[in-house]
Write a structure and sequence with these properties.
The chain is of the alpha/beta class and 375 residues long. It has three domains: 108 residues, 3-Layer(aba) Sandwich (Rossmann fold); 162 residues, NAD(P)-binding Rossmann-like Domain (Rossmann fold, 3-Layer(aba) Sandwich); 79 residues. It is globular and about 60 Å long.
């Protein structure tokens, strides 16, 4: 069996060893010619999987190692009876870590007070739901807008959902929706000029879902008028060449790295591999094992302020500065992809062990809420 896979998929050769003839192709270059004779296709979000790619192939299994699936034409796959598997939820913890690093930036650099602020989350699924859960451990006032979940909610849980208007009045708004255009609640351009205009003074907007959820032209126009706003953006329209003016203007700019971590990649590959074996009736085997799967012991990094510690462990400001500088002077698409590849070794907070000494109980409680451990 021939399997065509994105050459940049984490540990793809070792994980799929013995399952068939594995052909590796850079995801942005993958085309119909590569799929001749293939029965399975394994991709990331950089590959558009639709009729144009598949119509002359015999592919009957498509797996994406991403949570978002807007690069997949599910209607076409269903019409061809092609099995589709995504890795939804595998990167949720990684994205939530990024969001807490974003909050740490606002707390240490922008005078945000978690105790006094309201945080609005648009999209309460795997990522948004986990973010809300951890925020509530810190006694933060959280508002969630998710019409799909609200429609399915029981009477006892309805109170945790609110309207877009209510979220728009929060001090921090964080976006966690899939990119959709044709369902009951399309999210393409959801954050438009009208919504952006409602953001209160000194509000913060965080986008870690998909670039096209935000009207980028309207956002850029607003940021020029309102320097009081803080904007942290990890996802962009037209990746890997986003709007350079917007990259320069936002406070924090990163190239779609929020979901990139060792643990997220391993969860994704384990899930897709399991479904792949089931689809092709392959004998069960042990899942890939990793020598470095234990928690990473961190030394000499704690600061008096736990949020400064968070920024040391996840140096979001440094990442943004490096990305903006490289993006301004080098090949933009190469910078975007190279930066992402270098982030695959990132460890999540729940895989970090910090020294217990010299920390007040209140400091430890904040870091513990983010699932860090101590030794």
């Amino acid at each position: 069996m021939k399997i065509v896979a994105d050459a940049n998929l984490y540990d793809i050769q070792r994980a799929f060893e013995g399952t068939g003839e594995l052909v590796l192709v850079p995801g942005r270059q993958l085309d119909r010619e590569h799929l001749k004779g293939a029965e399975a296709l394994l991709v990331r979000s950089v590959t558009q999987v639709d009729a144009e790619l598949l119509k002359t192939s015999n592919v009957r299994f498509v797996g994406t190692f991403t949570s978002g699936a807007d690069h997949i034409d599910n209607t076409y796959l269903a019409s061809r009876d092609i099995t589709f598997v995504d890795a939804k939820g595998s990167n949720a913890n990684a994205v939530v870590d990024y969001c807490f690093a974003a909050l740490a930036y606002c707390i240490t650099k922008k005078s945000l007070s978690l105790e006094d602020c309201k945080i609005g989350i648009i999209g309460g699924g795997n990522v948004g739901g986990l973010f809300a859960e951890k925020l509530r451990r810190l006694n933060v006032d959280v508002r969630i807008c998710d019409p799909l979940l609200q429609r399915a909610a029981t009477a006892s849980s309805l109170e945790k959902y609110c309207s877009m208007d209510a979220v728009g009045q929060c001090d921090v708004v964080s976006l966690h929706v899939p990119l959709t255009m044709e369902n009951d609640y399309p999210t393409y351009g959801l954050i438009d000029a009208a919504f952006l205009a409602t953001l209160p003074h000194s509000a913060t907007l965080i986008n870690t879902c998909r670039g096209s959820v935000v009207d980028e032209a309207a956002l850029l126009k607003l940021l020029i008028k309102r320097p009081d706003l803080t904007c942290i953006v990890d996802v962009w329209e037209n990746e890997p060449i986003p709007n350079s003016s917007l990259v320069k203007k936002v406070d924090i700019a990163t190239p779609h790295i929020a979901g990139y971590s060792v643990e997220a990649k391993r969860r994704a590959i384990t899930h897709v591999l399991g479904r792949f074996r089931k689809e092709f009736d392959l004998p069960g085997q042990e899942e890939p094992t990793y020598e470095d799967s234990k928690a990473l012991k961190v030394t000499n990094i704690l600061k008096d302020d736990p949020w400064a510690t968070v920024l040391k462990l996840f140096p979001l400001c440094n990442f943004s500065k490096k990305f903006k500088m490289s993006y301004a002077h080098e090949n933009r698409a190469d910078v975007f992809d190279r930066f992402r590849q270098n982030m695959v070794t990132r460890r999540e907070f729940n895989k970090m062990k910090l020294p217990y000494t010299n920390l007040a109980e209140t400091q430890r409680s904040i870091l513990e809420a983010l699932d860090m451990e101590f030794y």
